[in-house]
């Protein structure tokens, strides 16, 4: 009985994590929708910028933790919006390199302002020590999950 109760508490923590992430995404989407971007598009742009631009589609998909096929539609739409360009890699003709256009860089400035605003709103009344501890704890949970995925018992 005690083990069952502990299991329910652990499940509750997972549910809380999922809920907080879902709500954060919803707030961010609400803030970014006026820019004409879906979540998949602004996240792809954000990650592309953070990775330093001019990277392969495969590297971007891996960084986003999605399948390359799932990323392709998003990249096509971003390209149609003139926010990115894709070119063949000079060293490997099978690979496609993605890079931001000037329009993409300009839009990213607006995205950055909005994302930082969302972050400030979401973290209001949370002091630096709490935030630091939360970050460390989440990193440990992610590490444990990866270990379990690579070395299941």
Structure description:
The protein is 71% helix and 8% strand. It is mainly alpha-helical.
Helicity range: over 70%
Query: How many individual helices?
Result: 6
What is the β-strand count?
3
Distance between the termini: 24 Å
Order of helices and strands: HHEHHEEHH
Provide the gyration radius in Å: 19 Å
Beta-strand percentage?
Answer: 5-15%
The largest beta-sheet arranges its strands as: 1-3-2
What is the C-level CATH assignment of the domain at 35-127? Answer: Mainly Alpha
Pfam families: MarR_2
Keywords: DNA-binding, Transcription, Transcription regulation
Organism: Vibrio ruber (strain DSM 16370 / JCM 11486 / BCRC 17186 / CECT 7878 / LMG 23124 / VR1)
GO molecular function: DNA binding; DNA-binding transcription factor activity
Structure summary:
The protein is mainly alpha-helical and 153 residues long. The protein has 6 helices and 3 strands. The longest helix is centred in the first third of the chain and has 31 residues, at 2-32.
Task: Give the topology, please.
Blueprint: H1 2-32, H2 39-50, E1 55-56, H3 57-64, H4 68-80, E2 84-88, E3 96-100, H5 102-122, H6 128-150
Antiparallel strand pairs: 1-3, 2-3
Helix pairs in contact: 1-5, 2-4, 2-5, 3-4
List keywords for this structure.
153 residues, mainly alpha, Arc Repressor Mutant, subunit A, three-stranded antiparallel beta sheet, 6 helices, 3 strands, 71% helix, 8% strand, HTH_MarR-typ, WH_DNA-bd_sf, DNA binding, transcription regulation
């Amino acid at each position: 009985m005690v083990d069952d109760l502990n299991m329910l508490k652990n499940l509750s923590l997972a549910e809380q994590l999922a809920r907080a992430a879902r709500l954060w995404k919803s707030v961010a989407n609400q803030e970014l929708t006026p820019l004409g971007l879906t979540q998949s598009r602004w996240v792809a742009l954000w990650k592309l910028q953070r990775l330093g631009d001019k990277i392969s589609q495969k590297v971007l998909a891996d960084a986003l933790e999605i399948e390359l096929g799932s990323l392709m539609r998003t990249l096509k739409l971003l390209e149609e919006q003139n926010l990115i360009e894709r070119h063949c890699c000079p060293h490997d003709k099978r690979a496609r390199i993605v890079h931001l256009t000037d329009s993409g860089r300009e839009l990213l400035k607006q995205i950055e302002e909005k994302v930082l605003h969302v972050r400030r709103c979401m973290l209001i009344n949370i002091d630096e020590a709490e935030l630091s501890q939360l970050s460390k704890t989440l990193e440990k949970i992610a590490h444990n999950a990866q270990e379990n995925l690579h070395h299941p018992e």
